[in-house]
Amino acid sequence: MGSGDEIIYGEEGMDERWVIDPRHLFVGPKIGEGAHAKVYEGKYKNQTVAVKVMHAGETPEEIAKRQARFSREIALLSRVQNKNLVKFIGACREPVMVIVTELLLGGTLRRYLFDTRPACLDIKVAVGFALDIARAMECLHAHGIIHRDLKPENLILTADHKTVKLVDFGLAREESVTEMMTAETGTYRWMAPELYSTVTLKQGEKKHYNNKVDAYSFAIVLWELIHNKLPFEGMSNLQAAYAAAFKNMRPSVDELPRDLAMIVSSCWRENPNDRPDFTEIIQMLLHYLSAIHPPDRPLPPPRSFSSDNVVFPPESPGTSALMSSTEGSPPKGRPGTRQRGFYFCFNRCYGSPEENRRDGQA
């Protein structure tokens, strides 16, 4: 049983609306691979998608753990819908655990920033991206979800590089700190200090933190968007974590415009309860944009999201870091550019011999 911002996920069953038929799923080239899954470009009912095939595990303990992780991810993806969250299309457990999501062709924010260096982003572009991120986080927090791993690798751009979408929701709130600490390299640089405190907990005691850990990470990402430099440059990931947690060090805001410096500084305050929530962050960013925006071009109204789980035309989060191995160039599988036959029937690749024989006789 959970309370507050803690969420308990069922591990059995799946809403029928989100169950895909693997017979209509086709897989193409692999576009990334991580510790828990491989991601392929694919097609589902004539829609170009990302197909995330989860590793099953080898030992009974590993199999159970990965099945639970799969269930938690599905529970998260099917709960929230927002313009700045990658769209969820569906999933299936058989013949293997698969998550099908929208395919984004713009690459990660990490790669976009790296390719732009040494130049900085236009300040309006940087703040616009920050607003996209803040709106995604506002939606997650409204549903009681803490991300805990907000960083440029978990943010992917649309093909036109005009919109940023948040992917890879992170580990479920109730998972152990130990498992959380196994996140991919670089996480510590963006993580709130209270997440990796070295204070030993008593047996059975839970680590106490709230969704303000995401506000801290957002501040680091916003600083990076404006400066286009690695935060805590010159430090290793662990050195950066130590400096932030035990010396209360933060990247310098001396070169930031005053209003932006105030936003960044407020989001990474040492006391989590002193940090603003994302509704406040959005208003501060909009106020800053209104101050620098030409008067003859009024700002669009703030985007809103529905707390109801509206079923959109199929498509979601989950492929972020897995795309990093090929993020230097966006996937080439744009609609209309592939010859028929390039995609292979999912059942042919992953179905059992019996299923393949039945398909062949059909």
From TrEMBL:
Superkingdom: Eukaryota
Protein name (record): Uncharacterized protein
Species of origin: Melastoma candidum
